Amino acid sequence: MNNVVEVFELFLFNIIVYNIPLLYGTTGEIMIEKSGSLNLGVEGTMAIGAVAGFLFGARFDSLLVACIVSFIAAGIVGLVFSFLTVTLQANQNVTGLTITTFGVAFYYFIGNAVSNGEKGWPKFSGTQLDAQSQALNIPGLSSIPFVGKALFSHGILVYVGVLIAILMWLYFNKTVPGLKMRSIGENPAAADSLGINVTAYKYIHIIVGSGIMGLGGLYMALNMGGTFEGSNCWINGYGWIAIALVIFANWSPAKALLGTLLFGFFNTLRVQNAALAYAFPNVLGWLTKIPSHFFSALPFIITLIVLILSSMTSKGRSGEPQAIGRSYYREDR
Amino acid sequence: MEYAIELKGISKSFGPVAANKNINLSLVKGEILALLGENGSGKTTLMNMLSGIYMPDSGSIFINGKKVSINSPEDSGKLGIGMVHQHFKLVERFTALENIRIGMRNVKSVLIRNNVRKNIEETAAKFGFNIDLDKQVSNMSVSEKQTLEILKVLCYGAKIIILDEPTAVLTVQEIERLFAVLRKMKEEGHSIIIITHKLNEVMSISDRVAILRHGEYIDTVVTKETNEKALTELMVGHKIELNIERPIMEKTHPLLEIRNLTVKNDEGMIAVDHMNFYIRGGEMLGVAGIAGSGQKELCEAIAGLRKIEDGLMIHEGKSIVGLSPKDVLAHGVAMSFIPEDRLGMGLSPSLSITDNIILKNYNDSKGIFVNRKNGRAEAQKVIERFEIVTPSTETPVRRLSGGNVQKVLLGREIKSGPNVLITAYPVRGLDINSSYRIYDILNEQKKKGVGILFVGEDLDVMLALCDKILVMCHGALQGVVNSDNTTKEEIGLMMTGSLNIVDRYGKTAGIAKDSVITDEEGKAE
Q1: For the structural domain made of A2-316, what CATH number should be given?
Q2: Measured between beta carbons, which residues in chain A are less than 8 angstroms from residue B112?
Q3: Residue in B77, B93, B111 nearest the CB of A195
Q4: Among A142, A273, B239, B348, which residue's Cβ finds the most Cβ atoms within 10 Å?
Q5: How many beta carbons lie within 10 A of that of residue B347, not counting itself?
Q6: What's the ipTM?
Q7: What is the pLDDT of residues A199-225, one digit of tens each?
Q8: Using alpha carbons only, what angle is made at residue B173 by residues B495 and B100, rounded to the nearest 5 degrees?
Q9: What pTM value is reported for the model?
Q10: Which contiguous run of DSSP H or E holds residue B424?
């Protein structure tokens, strides 16, 4: 019986583990899209944030350094995206795709170079960085039966991610700068005519949004034990799912919290279907009969279904910014 | 006299097109100044320089006697200038309150609280606005949106208020309400500039009238000392004799008859309002009207590009209502529409002349392959016939000069051998020589017995070229006049809605004596 409880706890625990990187990616992208830009470079931005954050974190043996560097590195990627699309008015889709291609390649390039270097890939286990990113063990809360372990025994980055989503929701809905930012995503000409600095607002929100994605990348790196595999990027397509989740969450950071949990569930199913089938042979025994490849493909299949369903909802209630993806030029006639 | 605004020698060009040439204008404190001019006379451009959207190429702006430079809408707002744009600058997804809130400068708090609501409500009450601050803009009527726009600039403390064609979208009652608000604002010491085409409104609301024509400043007159006729003359200018040929042909029976045609525009508002007219073979019918009076929608409706709400369109005895553009063309009705940006409609800029010609008759090819050889030969024919200057038939259309682009478009439509040709703004932006070449091309068609509908901008050209001129105002027919039998002033008065002569001669204009439509069929539903 103990075994069953453990499996259940682990299952819940893992849902959160898998949902957090998506949450960072999704909230970061929501911020960028709400300010009127469509950034398809989530995957690449997360990869750069991950590799830069991890290497510096390992070098200085500090989680704080890792977070700061990861945020800054991804922020620089956002700066490049802003410069190209806002100042030079380049096509946002092409620029975003380029960033993804570049970012993933950057991960392999730096990763291979460090692995083959004199000192080799930095060790992770047993370092301060490892210790700091481990579970917090909040006294009292973590020992609540069933949910205590699942909810309150994670690394600090999990809680930071949830905090960011909540703060972002407050910023969007309760503050004047948030309102101004949303007005730019809806109708930049209107915002401009009221003296709101459209360019500055777009730059700031693209950079901050990219920085948040970078943290998500760092979380994935730490969660995979910081080992560079060389064959599989840490981000592993999560950046793309995040873009789809933005639509699923209807551009709301609060709903993103729910949406990412759903994906966390299916991802956990992929990893733990065997354990579940073993723990509940009568009810869930059939899980073992499904080929493992199907579980690997499941998040992407769900993404597809989610996109179809959310595209069918009425336009009136959609939170999609009206001016998304379009460049703004004041003297346009 | 104290001036709120003085403009001295303002010029502004967009590429080679001069929108404003050396304009001088003054606004006295506490007055309502009407800015009058035809479309394209540069009114909106001039006002956009005050609101910080555009920057003047040369000249200086004085606000309250001080020389200023307005580099952005923010600068403009700080100087106390508020502009109500013709196309509202509102965030549809936001409520009225949110729309006002995002432009407020003097409120320190970063949180959205209700502390600003009281101020807004007070301002609204002061000027007699009735507005629900929590209503989302997308659920508002046009008049409510305009009220919100005006309330917005008042809340920002604007002392100089510019309204760009505020009455164009309003009903008569709404206009009266707007004017009451404007008078109230004047009492409170605001200075107002109102852009409009409608002379009766100018006469009723303004203290002075400034007139622009073709980007140039003409004069400023005191409203009390003038009348509608004098203003029309200033607005349209004196008649210029143009040496355009107008062959007189024997006219046939009506080829195309339009009866009670009603069409809506993209926003769902009535753009063409129970229009009647007909075109005979060998006749050129001009269509005059201020831009945006429904010309585009009229052309699109006939060509089968726009759904009609009501009415009949009879071509040689057969209805063309509801036919696809291809079927309309097969009937013998061709349209060439030159939009403001010239390339937007009809031609594909990156494709070659040959490809653009094939676009219209690719269906003639057999199987799935396009017959390019024929297309190229036809392109060559069009090039020779209309003297199009181009390196080859394979040159992308966007690389041609404006006149040549228009010749390609017109040439392609004529090539299909229509017996009704609809052409809108065929000489837009062309130099004199190219324009005359286009007139010749049209006259050739007319001599062949083709009926031509010529939607134009320049009244002098239309008076010289067309046999008859149909005048429309806000989508409604104001009358049909004979070019030899009218004056520019008369057409001007009709365009601005001051004169309606549909029933002048004891019969309804736009209905042919030998119409194939019986009275019974022609009745509006």
Answers
A1: 1.10.3470
A2: 173-176, 179
A3: B77
A4: A273
A5: 24
A6: 0.86
A7: 999 999 999 999 999 999 999 999 888
A8: 100
A9: 0.78
A10: strand B420-424
